[in-house]
Amino acid sequence: MTEKPDPLAVPFGTVFCDWMATARAEDGPLVYGGSPEPFGDLTISPAAHVLHYGSSIFEGLKAHRQPDGSVAIFRLDTHVARMVTSAALLRLPEIDPDILLQMIVDAVEANADEVPEPPGSLYIRPTFVGTGADIGAAAHPAPSALLFVVNSPVGDYFKGGIRPLTLQLETLTPRTVPQFGMVKCAANYAMALGSTMDAMAANEAIDQVLFATDGDITETGASNFFLADNERVVTRHLDESFLHGVTRDSVIQLARHHGYEIEERPIDPEELIDWSERGEAFLSGTAAGIAPVGTILYSGKALTIGSGQPGPNTMRLRQALTAIQTGTAPDPFNWRTTVQIRG
Ligand code: COI
Q: Which domains, from first to last, does the chain contain?
């Protein structure tokens, strides 16, 4: 077998573990064989619903190597619950949460020897696609579907590691459509791509586009958005228009635990000018973790956020989150699920 590259030295998500788990729903409930199989290509019909009508949802969660050598999955139940909701919203067949949870655990157990030491981690990607072979089914949900869980050993999501990111504020083109905003579906990422690619082509310093349709700052193409200072953290209140990030929720719970006030409310782009002088900004996501923002390009101006470097509150929250994930701090919220390592 060819040796795999060091996951911390290659782009995020480009190395794959040896094992995956798959289950199919064929005009009925999801059936899982109960054990992982070797990672490999999948077979679906060229007439599969997903290829024509976009019936595809996914999750992103992580497992972390613990100080005693064991492996713990972070916020497993919450990710499973969100995927069950996404399937229902995209009218895919129902996902039995027990089956999905078992598939994730089985895949991670089988791949446990490929989980890197921190700061690396194992990225877990469950994906559910409509497979019914019927190109006339534009106005019908897929009656059959394929669920699969693949794993990828990863390092930092953003090239260059922990550094102040540059965001472009986009006030005209929305990230997605309102009724899909909170669904973790493939189409949302495809919809954000045009604005992101155009911004990056115009300015190669741009890392992400921050969507603020009609002056309502919500999220970037890959993460939620926060403002912070010594007393409080601020993020957009939840509604159906954007993704309900699990890391967003973890940040809120952690920040409250550490004594910060939490403000979940609308954020107006004009407010960034004030924050840029005295506050911090960061992104949150499973892949990105807590990622500091140094500059926001807005209305032809470059707003330097604080000193332009990662802020102390951002780094404090990042360190607190990482410590729980990697088992160097207690787990007061019961966020870790330890998996068995096969001998
Ligand atoms: C994640 O953060 O896990 C996501 O699913 C975002 C993706 C762009 C990597």
A: 7-154 (3.30.470.10), 165-325 (3.20.10.10)
